[in-house]
Design brief:
The complex is a heterodimer.
Chain A lengths: L1 E12 L2 E12 L3 E5 L6 H9 L6 E6 L2 E2 L5 H7 L1 E4 L11 H9 L5 H15 L14 H14 L4 E5 L7 H16 L3 E5 L3 H7 L2 E6 L2 E6 L1 H6 L1 H8 L5
Parallel strand pairs in A: 3-8, 3-9, 6-7, 7-8
Antiparallel strand pairs in A: 1-2, 1-4, 4-5, 9-10
Helix pairs in contact in A: 3-4, 3-5, 4-5, 6-7
Chain B lengths: L1 H10 L8 H17 L6 H26 L7 H19 L5 H26 L5 H19 L7 E2 L2 E2 L6 E2 L5 E2 L6 E2 L4 H22 L2 H11 L1 H5 L5 H27 L1 E2 L6 H14 L4 H22 L2 H16 L4 H19 L1
Helix pairs in contact in B: 3-7, 3-10, 3-11, 3-12, 4-5, 4-6, 4-10, 5-10, 8-10, 11-12, 11-13, 12-13, 12-14
Classes of the chains: A alpha/beta, B mainly alpha.
Chain lengths: ~240, ~350
């Protein structure tokens, strides 16, 4: 059964048709990448899924439930979680406190402290735990926010450009982490421009263009698609 | 014993400056001095000190909403006024027998809180944030001031309580404790001093516990990044509304105590000057910390009063200068700056040893 289904989703910003009758079904357990040129409507689609924007028409189903009218926090309670494009950490608080805020609704007391320690170790941020999150490097902020997002133990993890600003090694490590999380049963939907990352993790790829689903298939099919090369991947992959 | 230890734990945390035996020893000393102080002073000075204490609650309300929550409310004086007038209307009508003044105290605070619930609901669920929140709250307090200003005529009365416009409402009974040997009246003197000091300690410690709890964590998270906080599953508007209502209740407590202290309240207590002064105390002290707010408020108030006595109108100009200097030199607050500097000094000294 599909974990997430988008039915005929439409969104206008003034005269701009940013999401144009998008249909998308995400199977439980898959890693799905969303690619497309700038302005294709990828981040808007994320905001619609998360409830930050509301669609003009269309429906969103999560695990069979229509969540189109639910508020964002309620969608998170259903099992969604997100890492934003611009790292959304609590800049004035320590890295440890960032994770505490993410974890405190599931754990208390000594158990909470243990969970934070475990997550810090998993993210490789043990040495930075007392640092103010705003002073971390860009990559570390990305990791910290990914940590907050996965600490909710979501059924579906949305990643908006998880590897932006990361070195090739860091990108590869992020890819491995995503695969590990997926092996534990987490479904992942990622927006990504880094094709190395997409090749590494994606089982299926959807190309968005001008607010519409332009192409969909395995990474091999997408890379081989001349129409995709023409609008997005360009000569580098042709 | 274990309960006591865990209570002490919950008083400390990353949200408040000051922890460990050293801090609490200092706290105990200051408290002991505050308790002994009326024995070495005269009734007038003690009464004057109560006046300073009265304002700390509205400062703490701003510390909570603005410093911790990140929403600048410019209109805490609206709740101050509602509760102050509320107490006046209730006690002038129903008197002070059977401990009713304390019932009136709670009812008046309740009115302010209910008003905040209504106003806050429309603001937070209508997604009014940032500078607009400040504008709306300021408009509300100024509107209330304008409204009360035109109630001088005899037709403006609630029961036997005349609202009295700018002449002010007066002659409400002070807080009165019913007692077998005759009621104890807390006039602006030693009795009221201990009552307000007790409240101050309770509120300060209570807020410390609140801010270091998981609730406090969420409040600070909303200040830092509301979108992220919501995407961790927190219903941020609910948290903002609760904080706003608690803040309004504290401002209301200030209003009641002020009215009780002078047995007098006028529309000016909701006016522009009244609305801006708490902002200055809190900004100068250090809005994101409870202890800094308390110390800052008391110091600035004492300085302000001294200046008013000697320099009259210049005191307000001085307040403005102080605010500008704070924003330029120590944007997080002067007292907080000094406290952080001290704690760095102490830890360096410990490290050197």
């Amino acid at each position: 059964m599909a974990l997430l289904e988008l039915h005929d989703l439409n969104k206008h910003f003034g005269g701009l048709h940013v999401t144009n009758s998008v249909n998308l079904a995400l199977e439980a357990g898959e890693i799905h990448c969303l690619i497309g040129p700038n302005g294709a409507g990828k981040s808007t689609l994320f905001r619609l899924i998360l409830g930050e924007h509301h669609p003009g028409s269309g429906n969103i189903f999560f695990a069979g439930e229509n969540i189109t009218a639910l508020k964002s926090f309620a969608r998170i309670h259903r099992g969604l979680s997100v890492k934003f494009q611009v790292p959304g950490v609590f800049k004035g608080l320590s890295a440890r406190q960032n994770l505490e805020i993410a974890l405190q609704s599931r754990h208390r007391g000594a158990e909470l402290a243990q969970e934070i320690d475990r997550l810090l170790a998993f993210l490789g941020l043990e040495a930075e735990q007392v640092q103010t999150a705003g002073n971390l490097s860009h990559g570390q902020k990305q990791w910290l926010e990914i940590g907050m997002a996965i600490s909710l133990k979501p059924r579906l993890l949305l990643l908006d450009e998880p590897t932006a600003g990361m070195s090739p090694e860091e990108t590869h490590m992020t890819g491995e982490m995503v695969q590990r999380l997926n092996a534990e049963g987490m479904t992942v939907l990622a927006i990504e421009h880094d094709m190395a990352f997409v090749r590494q993790v994606a089982r299926r790829v959807t190309v968005l263009h001008l607010g519409q689903v332009f192409a969909q298939g395995s990474i091999q099919q997408i890379v081989a698609d001349e129409r995709v090369a023409a609008i997005y991947l360009g000569q580098a992959h042709a | 014993m274990n309960g006591l230890v865990s209570l002490f734990r919950s008083l400390e945390g990353s949200q408040t400056v000051g922890r460990g035996p050293g801090f609490w020893a200092l706290f105990a000393i200051v408290l002991a001095i505050a308790c002994a102080y009326p024995l070495f002073s005269d009734g007038y000075t003690v009464g004057n000190t109560v006046y300073f204490f009265v304002w700390v609650f509205i400062a703490l309300s701003l510390c909570l909403i603005w410093g911790y929550g990140g929403s600048l409310s410019f209109g805490q004086t609206a709740f101050f006024g509602i509760a102050g007038y509320g107490y006046g209307v209730l006690t002038i009508n129903f008197g002070s027998a059977y401990g009713f003044t304390f019932v009136a105290l709670f009812l008046a605070i309740g009115m302010a809180a209910m008003f905040a619930l209504l106003l806050g609901y429309f603001m937070f669920f209508g997604r009014i944030a940032g500078v607009f929140l400040g504008i709306v709250t300021l408009a509300v307090t100024l509107m209330l001031e304008r409204f009360m200003a035109q109630t001088a005529g005899p037709e403006w009365r609630i029961g036997s309580a005349r609202l009295n416009g700018f002449n002010g409402m007066s002659a409400m009974p002070p807080l009165t404790i019913p007692w077998p040997g005759g009621p104890i009246v807390l006039i602006a003197d030693i009795g009221l001093y201990y009552f307000v000091l007790g409240l101050l300690v309770l509120v300060y410690l209570g807020l410390r516990i609140l801010m270091n709890s998981s609730f406090g964590n969420v409040i600070v998270a909303i200040r830092e990044n509301p979108e992220r906080a919501e995407m961790l599953g927190y219903d941020i508007r609910k948290y903002q509304l609760i904080t706003f209502v608690i803040g309004a209740a504290l401002a209301g407590l200030s209003g009641v105590l002020y009215t009780v202290w002078g047995q007098y309240i006028t529309p000016s207590s909701m006016g522009m000057t009244a609305a801006s002064l708490p902002l200055i105390w809190v900004a100068v002290g250090g809005r994101s910390d409870l202890t800094s707010t308390v110390i800052g408020t008391l110091v600035v108030l004492a300085a302000f009063q001294a200046l008013t006595i000697y320099g009259s109108q210049y005191a307000l100009v001085f307040m403005g200068v102080l605010l500008v200097l704070t924003v330029l030199i120590a944007p997080n607050g002067l007292v907080l700056g000094v406290m952080n500097w001290l704690s760095r000094l102490i830890s360096r000294y410990r490290g050197a040893k």
